[in-house]
């Protein structure tokens, strides 16, 4: 089921959204069948990249790596952040749906959030090579396609017209950017409380 949805979202998003809407899964089932499996990709990849593969800075030939403990801590926090972020985005969609006259069940809203973020979660595998410019370059197409999935998925999952779906999607996207900034602020605060990077010798 997971693989078929992933393939379908890339081949024919609108038709696949209709199939997803018919499932009516619970929050737990949605997490177990989709979110947990994909949410582990970025943390695991970055753990391997940061602690085992490493990276170089500028023209230096010195390979920098984080200690296993710090890399593991970052990976666990990333995993938790992904799970909380998807739930928060789904809850936000659920709350905002009242404004657009067609409130849907919370699990459906979480499903919309989870499946929309699929390309971003998949591209997380690039964390195995923790090179900033490479990861940013790879993330741009994934981000663009996630936004496209959001705009195509909202009208189907929320049961509204495409015009209202466009406005709804834009509001969700704006709120998502605010959430991203908030997460960055929390990251800076955690660094001040002792979670700054520690490099392996």
Automatic annotation (TrEMBL):
Cellular localization per UniProt: Membrane
Annotated ranges, domain Yip1: 8-183
KW Transmembrane helix (keyword) present: yes
Record membrane topology: Multi-pass membrane protein
Stretches that traverse the bilayer: 28-48, 68-97, 109-131, 137-154, 166-191
Keywords carried by this UniProt record: Membrane, Transmembrane, Transmembrane helix
InterPro entries to which the protein is assigned, alphabetical: Yip1_dom
UniProt main location, coarse: membrane
Keyword Zinc set for record: no
GO cellular component terms attached to this protein's record: membrane
The protein's name: Yip1 domain-containing protein
Species in which this protein is naturally found: hydrothermal vent metagenome
Lineage of producing organism: unclassified sequences, metagenomes, ecological metagenomes
């Amino acid at each position: 089921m997971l693989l078929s949805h992933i393939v379908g979202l890339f081949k024919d998003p609108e038709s696949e959204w209709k199939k997803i809407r018919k499932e009516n899964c619970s929050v737990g089932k949605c997490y177990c069948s989709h979110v947990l499996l994909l949410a582990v990709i970025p943390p695991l990849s970055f753990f391997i990249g940061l602690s085992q593969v490493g990276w170089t800075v500028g023209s230096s030939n010195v390979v920098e790596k984080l200690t296993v403990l710090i890399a593991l801590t970052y990976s666990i926090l990333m995993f938790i952040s992904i799970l909380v972020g998807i739930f928060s985005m789904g809850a936000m969609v659920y709350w905002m749906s009242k404004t657009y006259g067609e409130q849907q069940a919370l699990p459906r809203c979480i499903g919309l959030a989870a499946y929309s973020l699929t390309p971003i979660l998949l591209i997380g595998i690039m964390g195995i090579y923790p090179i900033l410019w490479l990861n940013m370059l790879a993330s741009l197409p994934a981000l663009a396609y996630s936004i496209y999935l959001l705009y195509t998925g909202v009208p189907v999952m929320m049961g509204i017209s495409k015009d209202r779906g466009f406005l709804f999607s834009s509001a969700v996207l704006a709120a998502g950017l605010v959430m991203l900034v908030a997460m960055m602020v929390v990251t800076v605060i955690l660094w001040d409380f002792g979670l700054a990077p520690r490099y392996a010798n």
